[in-house]
Design goal:
mainly alpha; extended
Length: 179
């Protein structure tokens, strides 16, 4: 690899690692505002995506009417979901947490049923433990969805700090960039 390519790679790694560490620290220190910011960004995305879909449906000359109507209706619903998110970011966050909690419960029930009927390729002990842990986690998330989101944000922040730090530690030496 030539020296210009190595320098470019180093710059890329440094920038992305610094962004990861910074975002991670922000998420750990301020989990609730971080969640709100992410929800607001997602809301903006939904509004833009919905508007673009409606625009494409309106301008979709030559496409089947069924596609145009479906795209227009879906675009409108997506855009409205984005507006709801922008008006109150807590609503979609709690909905996501509740859906996650329900998914944990469903997974727990499925694991326990699998353990009872003897799911092929797995042993009963670990499957029962997995099912019980999934049920406990699902219950905890459903009882305290906001706290669950904050914990998730802190853990994601810690992961970002770890990944960014590791990237910096694994950075090729500057001497390699000069060759």
């Amino acid at each position: 690899m030539d020296s210009r390519a190595v320098r470019t790679f180093r710059a890329f790694v440094v920038v992305t690692a610094v962004v990861a560490v910074t975002a991670g620290v922000v998420a750990v220190v301020w989990p609730r505002p971080t969640l709100v910011l992410v929800a607001l960004l997602f809301g903006v995305y939904l509004v833009v995506a919905g508007a673009m879909r409606v625009f494409a449906a309106a301008r979709g000359h030559g496409t089947p009417a069924t596609w145009r109507w479906t795209s227009g209706v879906v675009g409108t619903l997506v855009g409205l979901a984005g507006l709801v998110t922008l008006l109150d970011p807590a609503v979609p966050l709690v909905v996501y947490a509740v859906l996650g909690g329900l998914a944990f419960l469903i997974e727990g029930v499925a694991a326990l049923v699998g353990a009872l009927v003897g799911h092929p390729g797995s042993s009963r002990g670990p499957t029962v433990v997995s099912g019980v842990l999934s049920l406990l986690c699902g219950t905890a998330v459903l009882l305290a969805p906001t706290t669950a989101l904050e914990v998730f944000t802190v853990l994601a922040g810690i992961a970002l700090v770890g990944v960014g730090s590791a990237a910096l530690l694994l950075l090729p030496a500057r001497a390699a960039a000069r060759r």
